[in-house]
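Researcher: Here's a chain I'd like modeled. Treat it as a single chain, no partners, no ligands.
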Amino acid sequence: MVAITERNAVSTADLHRLVRLQKEHQAWSLLRSDNAAVVLALLGSHFDHGTRRVPAPDLFGLLDADLQILRDEGFDLPRTGQAYCADWVRAGYLLRRASSDTREETLEPTESTFAALTFVSGLTSATSSVTESRLTTLAGQLQALARDSDPRSETRLAALRAERDELDRQIAAVESGEFSVLDGTRAAERSREILALAGEIPGDFARVRAELEGLNRELRARILDDDGERGDTLGEVFRGVDLIGSSDAGRSFTGFYDMIIDPERSSQIDEWIDTVLQRPFAQLLDLEQRRRFRSLLSEMEESGSEVHATMTSLSRSLRHFVQSRHYEEHRRLQRLLRTTQQHALQVSELRKPYDQLDLELVRIGMSIDSVAALQLHNPADDLVAEPVVSNTTGEVDLDDLRRIVRESEIDMDELAANVAATMRARGSATIGEVLCDHPATQGLASAVGLLVLASEHGHRVDGTESIEWTSPRGGTRVATVRRYLFDPTDPTFPEAGVS
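Model: Modeled as a single isolated chain. Structure tokens:
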């Protein structure tokens, strides 16, 4: 009964752990998303080997081309590559970083994305003798672990002597020509097993980098929470202790990195790769697998250098954060925020969030956007692509030009001259009198023009008057308008003096 209870307790704990992972882990979230196949296919094609960083504008362009191909195949992907990348950054599938070499941002998969890619790759990989190759790897690792972790000298000597005897036996067999050569199929399978192990390294690098960055945030938070100058974390940094480099993740990566950059070891690995690729069984590997073998060491060196640069940068930044006393300003800001939160908690008992307050907050007008969202102005966009056509100059008939203008504009100069002529002849002038002496050459437009002149350069008198004009079709039109007298002293009618 006790055993059953313990078994149920362990199963319940495992279930709670898996439920939490299902809700929080980005790899699980990625695999459950509607476009999981599209996301993994696109990211897997551009981040296939190593923790390479791709400049954000370059990745946007590559994805736009891929998305257009997928749309042509019938997939519903209406957004741009930049929009999808923004979603993937928010979801935790991509990591945005500032490049130290250029001003462009870079994008790279997160540890969770590598985990999802590895899982899907494992579903589709076909291996015939994977049991033997993996068992050989496991046996070798177990033998080395048992030997190197043994504290007793007599048993370690016995194990080493047994290995020496086995080596002597193999040497004698080779000298006598009685040794077996691994056949091509099994050798190719072991090669694929090596590539499978190497394929897990990018995820390991991403995980180490995430652990280092998380440790950096944790150490900074610990420094801010330490009271006074005697905080353990603060004191260690002041004494020059590299807390990031001496962490578990830092020591583990440093051991790997030292091995990679060791000239003797790296040249040895290069020789082994060349030897393997020259063997006949290498032809059983496809072109992509041979390419991965060829670039295996360089990709590990490049990815390791990036992680090492990240670790070094975080260590220097943490030391500068402490030695420059910037942490004191952060502490002050943290105290202000906590005090504000405490006051807000007290005020919440008296005022509700939706209450109107007699306060005016001055907010900055600057919007904060990602650097990748900025678009540079290209002066070439304003250039005229079409050739400039030169037209020969010709002569213009002023009468025709005046006729064209009169078709769309009221000839106010003509109307002002008509008003002046009527005032000279009659001593005064109304709109009707002007039209009586000078018929409307523009029809209704002439009548409207006279009304405008009268309202601006005349004065209103009692009564109305009838005016008439001829329409373009030859009909007579009559209208009744208010009576105006034009002002003979107005400078608009300079020749309006009575004759």
